[in-house]
Amino acid sequence: MGEREVISLSQLTPNSLAILDDGLARIYATQLNVLFTGTLGILLKAKQLEHITTLKPILTQLDVLGFHLDAATKQTILKLAKESP
Fold first, then answer.
1. pTM of the full predicted structure?
2. Closest CA to 24 of 6, 43, 42
3. Angle, vertex CA 23, rays to CA 68 and CA 52, nearest 5
4. What's the rounded Cα separation, in Å, for the pair 34 and 58?
5. Can you spell out the DSSP letters for 19-33?
């Protein structure tokens, strides 16, 4: 489903949380007061809630699949997850 549809559904569903990774979609969601997070936010929350034990291999797999993540962001996420880069 595209970002436009996610934002539209979020507006129709009270107290929803949209998952958006696209920068432009996030700007638009902010303008519309749509609450959102991204893939990394979901993964970090899963680690914090102990649904997953380690985040680093998942980030590596996302990289293999073409999920664009710069080195600084990866380090920050791993630090927040209390894992070494």
1. 0.84
2. 6
3. 55
4. 27
5. E---HHHHHHHHHTT
